[in-house]
Amino acid sequence: MASIAFATVLAGCATHSSNHATLPPCCADSEAPATFTDKSIYQAASLWATDQGKQVKLGQLGGRPQIVAMFFANCQFACPIIVSDMKHIEAALTPELRARVGFTLISFDTKRDTPAVLSAYRLSRALPVENWALLHGEPDDVLELAALLGLKFKEDANGQFAHSNVITILNAQGEIVHQQIGLNQDIQESLRILRQLEPNTRID
Hints:
disordered N terminus; three-stranded antiparallel sheet; alpha+beta; Glutaredoxin; 204 residues; seven-stranded mixed sheet; 6 helices; 10 strands
């Protein structure tokens, strides 16, 4: 796998549940497998809070490809570009494929990015509730997930974060199949990967 670019940000910048009624829309439409492979990040047992106040495991995102990035809401430089890059990928998909792909943002900022803050962020960025998940986690869980995704981040004295700028594509089993590294990158390879991924297929 390509090495991860560690970009310094300067200025201000879930095991499957059958009870879909309790899940946010982003997690309710998929049919995640009961078990995951040893390459799947969905093996993590951590619980995450959605911006809608629901508790989910990462495995509840399974059953369809996910486009995943880590960010923080107070970021003024890199993170808005990462989200825009994800929205460009979303816009380039056909309506049929778009309905089969999820988009997930996980915050580095465990202190400030509460579910309420993430909910406001969703509104400010016009992120559809149907296929975008925004997750808040505990510090150790955020560290674990960053390691699983191959990302680095560090908080400075002002509460800003230096972090890797990476968009990761997971297949339906939560295995990393592609990483788009850097900001404002060409999205064609990401689109190619998504077009060949079916809800329950793998790329070896």
